[in-house]
C-alpha cells in the first residue's frame, strides 16, 4: 500500500503512520522495524489505557494539553482515539478554555512545528511556501494572523495554537479526516510589546503593517491557495474585528471561505436562541436583542439573527430594528460619527448612552435577550441581570466571551440573581447549578457544535462557496437535537458526550442544502446521510 512507502525510522517519525507498540509482527518485518519498537503488540484500546493513566498523573490541564499535543506529533491515530473516547473530558483540554493558556505561553511550551508558517518576508513566494506542505490534497486551511485570539487580544505567533486546535475539532467532533486539514499562521508581526520583548517569541519581531499592505499579502495567499490546493476551503480564524468582517466580504463570493468568529459564533448563538424560544413558547420574531460588544463576532451574530428573522417572514429593516448594540464607547446610535461601515445598520435613533449605562439601556430598551461578546469579565453584573428580570418573565442571558475569566457572568450568578428565571448559556462550560430548589444544566454556546459540521459538509460535497444559509441550517439542526427533557433543565445545546453523532446529523442537513443550492462539486447521492457517514474518520489501525 502507498501509505507504507516509508520504512524504518521514517515510519516512526510520521505521526500519520506511526503506531508505536501497535505494529503487527508482519508489519515490523515488512517495514524494517524489528528492534526499533518493543516486541509486544498492543491493541489501540490497550494503548489508550496507558495514555489515560499517564494523563491522570498530570497536575494541570495545561500539562495534559502539552502531553496530548506531543502524542499528536507522534501517533495521530492514538491521539484522536483518546479525544474521541471522551469528548466531554478532552475538548476543554485540547481547545477552550485550556487553549487560551496554551496560546499565552506558546513560545515557552513549543516542542516542534505543526502546520505552515507564512510570513510577510515571503511576499512574492507564497505559492512556493504552500508547495512545501507534504500533503497535496488539502481540503481545509484554517488560517489566523493572531490579531485577536479568543478574548486575549493580539498574540501574534502564539495564536497558531488556535488553528491547530480548530482543525483537531474538525476531526474529533465531526469526523473530518485529518489528512486534508492544514493549520496556518500568517505572520504579519504583532503590536504586543510583551511578546516583542520576549526572547522566546516565535514570530516576526515587527509591528503590524498598514491595512493595504496586509490585504495585498492576503490577496496573494488566497490566490495561491486556488492554484496549489484547488477546491480548498479557507477558514479564517481570530483576525482583528474589522479585518475579519472586511476580509470575509472581500472573498466570500469569489472563493470557498468563511470566518468562524463571524459566522460560526452566530450559528451557535442562533441555535441557543431557537431553544430559548422553545423553552419560553415564543417565536424568534417575538424576541429583541441587546448586545454588549459590536465587533466582528457581535456584528456576525446580529447579521445571522436578522437573516433568520427574514427567513421567518420579517422584513430586513424590521429585523434590524430589533437589535441594539453597545461597543466600548456606548450605544450604537445614529448621531455617532465613529462607527465603521458594518456597525451602521444597527445604529438607531436614540439618545447617546455610555458603556456604563448598559443596565439603564436594559430598562429603557426592554430587550428579551442580552448577548455578551465584549471580552469583559463580569460585565453582566447583578444590576444588569435584575434589570432583565424586571422587564422579562424569562430573560435570555448569553455570556459568550471566553476564556472563563472573560465571561460576562457565570452560570451561578445568572441563576442566583434571576432567582432561577434566566435561560442561560456561556461561551465556556460551567458546572450544574442548584438554585431555587432546581438543578440547572448551563449549556456551552461553543462554535465547536457548528464549524466542524459545516466543515464536514463542505469537504464531503466539495462545496464551491460557503453561505450564511449553511450556518442558519446548521443552527436549526443543532437546536433540534436538544430533547424536551434537557430543555426543561435549562440545557440549550446537545450534550457534548454525543457530539460526533450530533455533528454528523448536522453535517447531513448542511450537505443537503449545499446540493439543493447547486453549490456541490460532486454528484448528489440518493442517501445524503449515508454519503456523509461513509466519509467519517474513525481512528483505527485496521
Mind explaining what this structure looks like?
The protein is an alpha/beta fold. The chain has 4 domains: 81 residues, Hemocyanin, N-terminal domain (Up-down Bundle); 142 residues, Rossmann fold, CATH 3.40.50; 183 residues, 3-Layer(aba) Sandwich (Rossmann fold), CATH 3.40.50; 85 residues, Rossmann fold (3-Layer(aba) Sandwich). The chain is 44% helix and 9% strand. It is built from 24 helices and 13 strands. It has a 6-stranded parallel beta sheet, with helices on both faces. α4 crosses α7, α10 crosses α20 and α17 packs parallel to α18. The longest helix is centred in the middle third of the chain and has 21 residues.
Tag the structure with descriptive keywords.
alpha/beta; six-stranded parallel sheet; five-stranded parallel sheet; Hemocyanin, N-terminal domain; 24 helices; Rossmann fold; about 10% strand; about 550 residues; single chain
Summarize the model shown.
By secondary structure, this protein is α/β, with parallel strands linked by helices.
Rg calculated over all Cα atoms: 23 Å
3D shape: globular
Domains, number:
4
Amino- and carboxy-terminal Cα gap: 13 Å
Average pLDDT figure: 95
Helices, by number, come to 24
Q: Which strands sit side by side, in order, in the main sheet?
A: 7-6-8-9-10-13
Low-confidence stretches: none
Largest sheet: 6 strands, parallel
CATH architecture of the largest domain: 3-Layer(aba) Sandwich
Strand content: 5-15%
- The secondary structure category is alpha/beta
The total strand number stands at 13
- CATH fold call of the largest domain: Rossmann fold
CATH superfamily of the largest domain: NAD(P)-binding Rossmann-like Domain
Bin the helical content.
Answer: 40-55%
Please identify the top-level CATH class of the largest domain. Alpha Beta
Amino acid at each position: 500500500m502507498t501509505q507504507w512507502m516509508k520504512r524504518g525510522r521514517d515510519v516512526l517519525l510520521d505521526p500519520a503512520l506511526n503506531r508505536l507498540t501497535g505494529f503487527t509482527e508482519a508489519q515490523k518485518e515488512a517495514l524494517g522495524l524489528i528492534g526499533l519498537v518493543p516486541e509486544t503488540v498492543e491493541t489501540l484500546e490497550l494503548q489508550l489505557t496507558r495514555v489515560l493513566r499517564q494523563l491522570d498523573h498530570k497536575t494541570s490541564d495545561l500539562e495534559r494539553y502539552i502531553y496530548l499535543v506531543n502524542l499528536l506529533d507522534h501517533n495521530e491515530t492514538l491521539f484522536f482515539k483518546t479525544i474521541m473516547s471522551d469528548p466531554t473530558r478532552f475538548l476543554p483540554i485540547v481547545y477552550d478554555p485550556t487553549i487560551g493558556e496554551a496560546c499565552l505561553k506558546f513560545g515557552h511550551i513549543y516542542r516542534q512545528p505543526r502546520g505552515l508558517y507564512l510570513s510577510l518576508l515571503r511576499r512574492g513566494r507564497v505559492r512556493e511556501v504552500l508547495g512545501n506542505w507534504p500533503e497535496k490534497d488539502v481540503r481545509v486551511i484554517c488560517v489566523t494572523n493572531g490579531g485577536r485570539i479568543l478574548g486575549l487580544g493580539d498574540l501574534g505567533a502564539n495564536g497558531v495554537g488556535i488553528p491547530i486546535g480548530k482543525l483537531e475539532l474538525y476531526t474529533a467532533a465531526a469526523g473530518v479526516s485529518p489528512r486534508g486539514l492544514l493549520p496556518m499562521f500568517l505572520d504579519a508581526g504583532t503590536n504586543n510589546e510583551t511578546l516583542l520583548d520576549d526572547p522566546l517569541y516565535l514570530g516576526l519581531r515587527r509591528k503590524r503593517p498598514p491595512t493595504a499592505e496586509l490585504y495585498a499579502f492576503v490577496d496573494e495567499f488566497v490566490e495561491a491557495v486556488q492554484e496549489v490546493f484547488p477546491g480548498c476551503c479557507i477558514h479564517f480564524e481570530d483576525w482583528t474585528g474589522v479585518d475579519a468582517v472586511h476580509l470575509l466580504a472581500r472573498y466570500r463570493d469569489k472563493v470557498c471561505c468563511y470566518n468562524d468568529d463571524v459566522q460560526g459564533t452566530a450559528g451557535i448563538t442562533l441555535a441557543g436562541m431557537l431553544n430559548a424560544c422553545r423553552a419560553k413558547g415564543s417565536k424568534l420574531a417575538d424576541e429583541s436583542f441587546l448586545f454588549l460588544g459590536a465587533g466582528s463576532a457581535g456584528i456576525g451574530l446580529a447579521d445571522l439573527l436578522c437573516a433568520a428573522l427574514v427567513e421567518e417572514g420579517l422584513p430586513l429593516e424590521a429585523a434590524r430594528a430589533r437589535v441594539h448594540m453597545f461597543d466600548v464607547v456606548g450605544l450604537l446610535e445614529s448621531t455617532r460619527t465613529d462607527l465603521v461601515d458594518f456597525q451602521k445598520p444597527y445604529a438607531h435613533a436614540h439618545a447617546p448612552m455610555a458603556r456604563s449605562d448598559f443596565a439603564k439601556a436594559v430598562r429603557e430598551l426592554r430587550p428579551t435577550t442580552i448577548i455578551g461578546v465584549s471580552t469583559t469579565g463580569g460585565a453582566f453584573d447583578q444590576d444588569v441581570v435584575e434589570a432583565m428580570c424586571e422587564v422579562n418573565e424569562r430573560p435570555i442571558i448569553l455570556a459568550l466571551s471566553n476564556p472563563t475569566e472573560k465571561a460576562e457572568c457565570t452560570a451561578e450568578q445568572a441563576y442566583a440573581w434571576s432567582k432561577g428565571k434566566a435561560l442561560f448559556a456561556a461561551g465556556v462550560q460551567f458546572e450544574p447549578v442548584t438554585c431555587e430548589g432546581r438543578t440547572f444544566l448551563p449549556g456551552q454556546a461553543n462554535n465547536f457544535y457548528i464549524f466542524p459540521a459545516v466543515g464536514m459538509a463542505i469537504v464531503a460535497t466539495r462545496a464551491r462557496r460557503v453561505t450564511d444559509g449553511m450556518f442558519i441550517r446548521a443552527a436549526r439542526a443543532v437546536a433540534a437535537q436538544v430533547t424536551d427533557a434537557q430543555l426543561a433543565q435549562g440545557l440549550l445545546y446537545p450534550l457534548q458526550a454525543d457530539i460526533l453523532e450530533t455533528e454528523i446529523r448536522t453535517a447531513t442537513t448542511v450537505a443537503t442544502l449545499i446540493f439543493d443550492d447547486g453549490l456541490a462539486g460532486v454528484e448528489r447521492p440518493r442517501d445524503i446521510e449515508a454519503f456523509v457517514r461513509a466519509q467519517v474518520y474513525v481512528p483505527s489501525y485496521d
